[in-house]
Amino acid sequence: MMKITVDEIQSDPLKYLRQVEAGETLVIMRLNQAIAELRPIASSKQLRPFGLCAGEFTVPDDFDAPLPEDILSSFEGK
């Protein structure tokens, strides 16, 4: 964790952003008091592998067939 002043970050913001991209955490100080922390975003989101559930579900042949009248009536509030 690196401590920097507001003036330092204003003088060369890209320098400090590159350090954050590299994994460094920066504490921004004003008058010897910490006012902010600049850190990389933790990316915990992993993509699901393609075909993870292959074969566990089969789409029926009539999947896109019109609904029966009694179910349609229920949706329409009749």
Largest sheet: 3 strands, mixed
In terms of DSSP E residues, the strand content is 15-25%
CATH class of the domain at 2-38: Alpha Beta
Question: Strand order within the widest sheet?
Answer: 1-2-3
CATH fold node name of the domain at 2-38? YefM-like fold
CATH architecture classification of the domain at 2-38: 3-Layer(aba) Sandwich
Low confidence ranges: none
Q: Work out the helicity level.
A: 25-40%
Order of helices and strands: EHHEEH
CA distance, first residue to last residue: 65 Å
Structural class: alpha+beta
Q: How does the overall form come out from the CA principal axes?
A: elongated
Number of strands: 3
- How much is the average pLDDT? 90
Number of helices: 3
Radius of gyration: 28 Å
3D architecture notes:
With 78 residues, this protein is an alpha+beta fold. The chain has a domain at 2-38: YefM-like fold (3-Layer(aba) Sandwich). 28% of the residues lie in helices and 19% in strands. The chain contains three helices and three strands; from the N terminus they run E-H-H-E-E-H. It has helices spanning 6-11, 13-21, 69-75, and strands at residues 2-5, 26-30, 33-38. A three-stranded mixed beta sheet has the order 1-2-3. It is elongated, with a radius of gyration of 28 Å. 0% of the residues are buried. The mean pLDDT is 90.
